[in-house]
Amino acid sequence: MSTVSISQPLQALAAANKVRIDRAELRADLKHQRITLRAALDDPRAQGMTVSRLLASQHRWGAHRARQACLTVPVSENRLVGDLTGRQREALAQLIEARRNQE
Questions:
Q1: Count of structural domains, the chain
Q2: Which end of the chain is more exposed for a tag (fewer CB within 10 A), N or C?
């Protein structure tokens, strides 16, 4: 017989759902330009997201542009935002800001 109470799995599901909702809000804020990429890179909600997912969330960006940006920096597109070094965060932020100024 299992000693895990029924409420424990429900609490885990609720916590996971909150994380998904928080990340969706962050992606929406990035898409609608209510937050900059520089701020999103430091946002606690983004720390468990992949770099490519965060980059692709930007306005007029997709998987292809995100992949190109990751190759330019260079950083693995599957790397978690929380695992980026300060130098990589700065390089990504500068790259995106430079591309925004060109548009």
A1: 1
A2: N
